[in-house]
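Hi R.,

Here's the chain you asked about this morning:
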Amino acid sequence: PDDIYTPRLAALWDLDRKEAHGEVGRWDIDFWMNGQDGEISDVRVSKLAVENATDREIVVAKFRNEKTPNEIHFYFEKTRAGWKLDDVRSLLGEPWVLSLQLKYGWDGKP
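And the predicted structure, written out as tokens:
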């Protein structure tokens, strides 16, 4: 759904779609599961406070996708419209940050 993003992240999705000219953009996997498909298991979710900021939180999801360990951090911000997703970062395997991927791609990789 497009209504879950902060204006900043929504603008990056729009930029990626615009620059893709109807083709697949720079981001082509499901960031919730760190893959195009799979089988999720061993899910553990926790929350981290952001120092000196009650209007931002980090949700940490640790899980296995097809037996591969994953740790994904979801960065949320409280807006006038409620809590919105502002960024996503994967820490294990091939690390990535969603906002950077949407704007710059995979560091020059095809």
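Residues 7-20 form the longest helix (14 residues).

Let me know if you need anything else.
M.
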